Amino acid sequence: MEKSFDSQDKIKDAKIIFVVGGPGSGKGTQCERIVAKYGYTHLSSGDLLRAEVASGSDRGKQLQAIMQKGELVPLDTVLDMIKDAMIAKADVSKGFLIDGYPREVKQGEEFEKKIGKPCLLLYVDAKSETMIKRLLKRGETSGRSDDNEETIKKRLDLYYKATEPVIAFYESRGIVKKVDSELPVDEVFVQVSQAIDSLKP
Ligand SMILES: Nc1ccn([C@@H]2O[C@H](COP(=O)(O)OP(=O)(O)OP(=O)(O)O)[C@@H](O)[C@H]2O)c(=O)n1
Ligand SMILES: Nc1nc2c(ncn2[C@@H]2O[C@H](COP(=O)(O)OP(=O)(O)O)[C@@H](O)[C@H]2O)c(=O)[nH]1
Ligand SMILES: [Mg+2]
């Protein structure tokens, strides 16, 4: 008990940025740039889940089935993974990019209860046609079982239904910065940098 309280304490005051946008909008691409420029720790919830799948564990097999269908993994599973990863990096991290989470308003609320409040929600915006095109292209080489036409459609539907309300939720708190991910990567990153530079130290 004592120990888990201590380790949780380590991330209590961490700088937290949520990176939200549709599938294939360019979240991962921009996060890579942010890491290079600002030294933040990038935690992609999708990557954490895929690592569990790759481990071949029983839990990984259950996750694989859900992800293949483009559905959402249970909230507690993802949140525990993110929290453990944050605690592991707490001593060396200047801040955390939480990429692909929250996927629904409830996930954001639980994150705040168990971990802390975000200071920024970076909204990576692209048109659905653009996202579909990028995902199909990525699917040629990604090896991801969910980068196929049928699952992409489901992921997009779920994004508009469950995840877009997350943006409205944080907009009412005044922490949303939207970047136009239709632009070339460098130009998107100019907007991303402005959003991060505007944060109070
Ligand atoms: N918080 C999360 C993150 C991911 N997933 C599951 O993992 C899949 C892939 O997630 P992610 O890698 O974030 O995919 P995308 O939204 O397509 O974004 P990206 O292209 O950055 O990987 C989702 O469809 C979903 O099944 C989830 O349930 N909950
Ligand atoms: N043209 C263009 N392509 C991009 C941009 N950002 C990402 N991509 C491509 O779109 C695909 C999805 O990007 P990724 O970062 O994986 O998106 P995520 O699903 O939101 O994490 C990748 O193949 C990228 O190379 C961009 O700003 N412009
Ligand atoms: Mg990604």
Query: What is the distance, rounded to the nearest whole angstrom, between the alpha carbons of the first and last residues?
Result: 33 Å
The helix-and-strand class reads alpha/beta
Number of strands: 5
Helix-residue proportion: 55-70%
Return the string of H and E elements: HEHEHHHEHEHHEH
Low-confidence stretches are: none
Q: Tell me the overall shape.
A: globular
Portion of residues in beta strands equals: 5-15%
Name the CATH class: Alpha Beta
How confident is the prediction overall: mean pLDDT? 95
Number of domains: 1
Let me know the CATH homologous superfamily.
P-loop containing nucleotide triphosphate hydrolases
CATH topology group = Rossmann fold
Report the biggest beta sheet as strand number plus sense, adding barrel if it closes: 5 strands, parallel
How much is the radius of gyration in Å?
16 Å
**Number of helices in the DSSP assignment:** 9
Physical arrangement of strands within the biggest beta sheet: 2-3-1-4-5
What are the SSEs and their pairings?
Elements: H1 2-9, E1 16-21, H2 27-38, E2 41-44, H3 45-54, H4 58-68, H5 75-89, E3 96-99, H6 105-114, E4 120-125, H7 128-142, H8 149-171, E5 176-180, H9 185-197
Parallel strand pairs: 1-3, 1-4, 2-3, 4-5
Helix pairs in contact: 2-9, 3-4, 7-8
The structure holds cytidine-5'-triphosphate (CTP), guanosine-5'-diphosphate and magnesium ion.
